[in-house]
Amino acid sequence: MNMKNLEISENLESVSERLQAKSSATNLDFGHKKQIEMIGNAPCLDTAIRLFKCASPLVRTYKFVFSSDVGTSPGFSVNRKFSKTAAVRSLFSTEKVFVVDEVTLREMSQGESKFRIDYSISLDNQALSYLEPFFEQKRSKIPADMIEVFEFISRPEVFVDPQPYMDENIQNLDSNEKILKIKKKLRSYEILRTLDLEALRVDNIVRTTLSDKKLEENTQKLTAVMFQKRRDKRATVPMGMRYILIYCQLLKMISIQMKSPQRSTHHKILDYLEFCHHELKALSFREISIAKKYFDEGNNFRFFKDIQKNRERLFEAINGMVWDLWHVRQLEENMVRGSRGKVRYFFPAILTFDKGLNEVMDLHPLKSIAFNASLKDTIPFYEGSFIMDIADADLQKASEIQHYFEREQVSWRELERNEKKRHKTEKVYMEKLLVNLEQELEKASGIKKPETLSIWYMSNDNSRISKKSAKNY
User: Fold this and answer.
1) How far apart are CA 232 and CA 225, in angstroms?
2) Angle between helical axes of 285-297 and 314-338 (0-180°, round to 10)
3) Which of 11, 332, 371, 435 has its CA 20 to 30 A from that of 18?
4) What is the mean pLDDT of residues 306-316?
5) Distances (CA, A) of 221 to 190, 215, 254, 301, 334
6) What is the dihedral of CA 261, 263, 266, 267, to 10 degrees?
């Protein structure tokens, strides 16, 4: 029984892109998907290369990056642990990667391939919260593990970016008070991006190399980028769809666990897959893996440590979890966005102090990833035997799970999504589904969702900004 042969079409990122695509031309047919899957899941690099060379012209427009002990070093976007909780997390488990694409293979056949790469390490919100209090303080007051992080960030060859904070907060550009808070945070990010290494080592102070004028200028530029993105529905609509898809999946798995915590993991997994198939009409590797671990361990899974019945701020905690998973997906998308022009490959990573997020990323590191910048398509393949892992190596359980990945089921889900897209009903459908899931969790948890906690991306006009605010900032 082939347990992995149809996972390819159900990547959450690909689903989001298909739902937002302007043309059906971006959709691969089953044969092309199968070719990409065979390359991405190839047992060794030699096989992957042979399969790529034999693939159709459309498939050969994709680039493949494989986790590998040989090949290209992705700069500082590799896994790195500091002495305590901080860690840099890459999409891959190895320190090197092997790339496969038409241009690189052609150059290699002629001797060697030399190409430009780029990388960036995103700072998650928790990282900034940990580091910000130590600005302008003497080193003697800074814990040793924080010094490690500051020294790493301050290295001239290390580049960090504030994308997670900016993406989370473009929804808050609706009042001067919120904008001032955002600017303060962006200023802190600019300080971290431009740390004075000599001042850190000699004077024991964490400060920027920029003048006050330049620091303010850079902060204003970052704020302007947020305003621009907020107005651009080509950016906010896919962002919102990804948020909603992840949010719905978390709501459902939490409701299942709270209703019947003693029920077998396998039956809870089947319930979850039924929901994803019939109601969400999309399946996702990572979220299914997260559900499996959550159903096995409950609140002992650190990512869900704040998810308990009758616990205040339950929905606020879920919102934070959604953003964590959102940023992991964004790392995958960033490989596409950054790998353009003269940069053949871009390698993203994230710096985090969140142990729960580290556990999530440890569940299934990437075995490989395929992407096409022109089609805006990203298809990840994870290490391990996915269905057998979810089924605890039980063939009967695996057969029941495999049902949801058979060609007929995949085709039905895709047809349903395309129908909603064609009739422009996906937004209304997702709004109703989201409300039903929130009500289901309210009943299971005994906690009402606060009225002040709104899903901004579901509003009728998510690009509306005060003209006065935009002009001032």
Assistant:
1) 11
2) 150
3) 435
4) 95
5) 11, 10, 40, 40, 21
6) -110
pLDDT tens digits along 371-407 = 998 888 899 999 988 999 999 999 999 999 999 999 8
The distance from CA 91 to its chain's CA centroid, rounded to whole angstroms, is: 10
Comparison of pLDDT for 174 and 438, the residue scoring more: 438
| Range with top average pLDDT, 71-75, 321-325, 331-335 | 321-325
DSSP 11-75: -HHHHHHHHH-SSGGG---HHHHHHHHHHHT-SSHHHHHHHHHHS-TTGGGSEEEEEESSSB--T
CA–CA distance, 229 with 264 (Å, rounded to integer) = 44
300-326: b or e for each residue (b if 16 or more CB lie within 10 Å)? ebebbebbeeeeeebbebbbbbbbbbb
pLDDT digits (tens, 9 = 90+) for 59-90: 999 999 999 999 999 988 889 999 888 999 99
Q: CA 306 to CA 321: how far, in whole Å?
A: 10
Please check whether residue 50 is in contact with residue 77, taking contact to mean a CB–CB distance below 8 angstroms. no
- State the amino acid at position 416 in one-letter form: E
* Residue 98 C-beta-side C-alpha neighbours within 13 Å: 18
Phi and psi dihedrals of 120, rounded to 5? -155, 145
Helix axes 212-231, 176-193, angle to 10 degrees: 120
Q: Could you say which DSSP state residue 303 is in?
A: G
- Taking each helix axis as running N to C, give the angle between helix 265-275 and helix 233-259, from 0 to 180 degrees, rounded to the nearest 10: 150
Handedness of CA 321, 324, 329, 333 (dihedral sign): positive
DSSP class of residue 298 equals G
Tokens of 180: 């001032």
| Residue 466 to residue 469: CA distance in whole angstroms | 5
Segment (H or E) for 98: strand 96-100
Would you state the pLDDT for residue 85?
84
List, in order, residues 6 or more apart from 70 with CB less than 8 Å away.
45, 96, 98
Q: Which amino acid is at 7?
A: E
Whole-angstrom Cα distance, residue 122 to residue 155? 15
391-400 LR contacts (CB < 8 Å, sep 24+) = 391/266, 392/265, 392/266, 394/266, 395/1, 397/266, 398/1, 398/3, 399/1, 400/266, 400/270
pTM (2 decimals)? 0.87
Annotate 102-132 with DSSP letters as a single string.
Answer: HHHHHHHHTS----EEEEEEEEPHHHHHHHG
Cα–Cα distance for residue pair 246/255, rounded to 1 Å = 14
